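Example S7 (structure tokens).
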């Protein structure tokens, strides 16, 4: 029997503001859409946290035995600098500044995005569609919305009519905003604007002569609005109504609000049953921003080449740090927090490895089966990874107790403990045991240096002091110091 039939999972639905028991539209099957990156720059750490959060969710659904289709898009056109449908396309601007083709920008930063998430051990989505690959479908959806009277065309651009939609629908229900309040707090439209109302948003924009990225349409040579792509791609691959839509908290308004409006206007149905939003990441207690310098890129964490860090950290340590907070909580990133996470990560991995070697007894002093269910209880409570990690450390404490002779475990419980730790550490949390890799590398380094010490000793015996000194000096330049003594030569690594 599939695990999901034994476990009752609750999700925090942003639409209702409550935790709800999860029931998929089709038993055993899940459709999940997550808004992906706009690929005009290197993926930043806040984005990584969002995608690590949804990777955790994806992994847990798979662990429970669901057949899940996870769709995460790539925005490679249509995302303007300003949410009010003004400014340049972000990708086109980057291409203009660097004097390269827009698709070169897209390729460069899509590769960076994939490489970075791979380092964090994220699983790839089931489908990763692009906005430019679905221009035809976006045009067809615009036609439907126009035919149903929820959009209008002006001077080659098409806009969604929010006020008309709101007469029989509730625009703002996801973000908890009242359209009346939005109208009251909005400045008057600029004289050159084609919109009827400031709240209206673009479904299709006519391209100015200098605009690089453009496609033919019934209205003009132009490009689709940013919000439209997600409506089109989610419904194409998951249906007019699907289970879960996720993204960063900053997308709740206007992006997700506009998606709901477009979906209801084009199909007459509420497109999503559960809305999930991941919260932001701060750095040293302040919002991350490139403009202030309070910012860090993922590769700077791995290398340590950043003023905020004292050293480099393994990607799995950074992932472990992020999972120590619930995905809906603000998480503050700091050197001190990463150092503490590294210690905890190493303790967890050491305990897991030793769990297969525990001495067994006739009885157990710890209920492994009850502990296992507590692991599930944590994840069943809106994917509460910090509680899961705390529960895993209950096992770490018990393993140390068995090792020291203060606790006992049976053969059967030892196997259950080891297998459960494996499932939650590697399959669900998605961590990699890099401590083994580091140990292997350390053994290889020791073997190489020992070989060079023997070659140096042979050179000295042959009175080839030039070669002997060369080996010593070149090792020293690499941070490896040789010390000659009565018992032979030993080496130390300089910090």
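Recovered sequence:
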């Amino acid at each position: 029997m599939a695990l999901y039939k034994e476990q009752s999972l609750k999700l925090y639905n942003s639409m209702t503001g409550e935790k709800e028991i999860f029931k998929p539209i089709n038993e055993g099957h899940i459709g999940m859409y997550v808004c992906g990156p706009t690929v005009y720059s290197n993926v930043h750490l806040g984005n990584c946290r969002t995608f690590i959060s949804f990777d955790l969710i994806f992994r847990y659904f798979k662990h429970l035995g669901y057949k899940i289709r996870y769709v995460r898009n790539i925005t490679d056109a249509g995302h303007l600098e300003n949410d009010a449908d003004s400014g340049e396309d972000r990708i086109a601007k980057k291409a203009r500044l660097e004097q390269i083709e827009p698709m070169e920008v897209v390729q460069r930063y899509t590769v960076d995005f994939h490489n970075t998430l791979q380092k964090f051990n994220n699983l790839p989505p089931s489908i990763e569609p692009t906005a430019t690959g679905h221009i035809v479908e976006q045009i067809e959806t615009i036609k439907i919305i126009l035919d149903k009277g929820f959009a209008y065309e002006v001077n080659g651009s098409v806009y969604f009519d929010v006020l008309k939609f709101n007469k029989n629908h509730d625009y703002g229900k996801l973000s908890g905003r009242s359209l009346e309040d939005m109208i009251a707090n909005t400045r008057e439209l600029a004289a050159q604007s084609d919109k009827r109302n400031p709240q209206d948003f673009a479904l299709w924009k006519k391209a100015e002569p200098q605009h690089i990225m453009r496609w033919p349409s019934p209205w003009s040579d132009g490009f689709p609005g940013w919000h439209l792509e997600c409506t089109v791609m989610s419904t194409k691959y998951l249906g007019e109504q699907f289970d879960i839509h996720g993204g960063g908290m900053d997308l709740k308004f206007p992006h997700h609000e506009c998606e709901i409006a477009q979906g209801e206007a084009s199909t007459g149905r509420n497109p999503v049953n559960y809305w999930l939003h991941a919260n932001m990441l701060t750095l040293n207690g302040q919002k991350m921003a490139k403009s202030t310098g309070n910012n860090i890129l993922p590769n700077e964490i791995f290398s340590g080449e950043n003023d905020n860090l004292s050293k480099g950290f393994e990607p799995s340590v950074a992932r472990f740090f992020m999972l120590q907070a619930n995905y809906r909580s603000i998480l503050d990133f700091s050197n001190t927090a990463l150092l503490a996470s590294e210690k905890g990560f190493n303790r967890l991995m050491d305990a897991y490895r030793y769990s297969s070697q525990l001495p067994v007894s006739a009885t157990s002093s710890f209920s492994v089966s009850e502990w296992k269910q507590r692991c599930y209880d944590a994840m069943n409570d809106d994917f509460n990874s910090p509680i899961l990690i705390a529960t895993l450390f209950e096992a770490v404490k018990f393993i140390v107790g068995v090792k020291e002779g203060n606790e006992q475990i049976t053969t059967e419980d030892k196997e259950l403990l080891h297998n459960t730790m494996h499932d939650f550490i590697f399959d669900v949390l998605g961590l990699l045991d890099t401590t083994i890799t580091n140990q292997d590398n350390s053994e290889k380094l020791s073997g190489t240096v020992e070989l060079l010490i023997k070659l140096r000793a042979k050179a000295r015996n042959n009175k080839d002091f030039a070669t002997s000194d060369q080996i010593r000096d070149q090792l020293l330049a690499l941070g490896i110091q040789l010390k000659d003594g009565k018992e032979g030569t030993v080496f130390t690594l300089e910090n």
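Notes on this example. The two ends are 53 Å apart (CA to CA).
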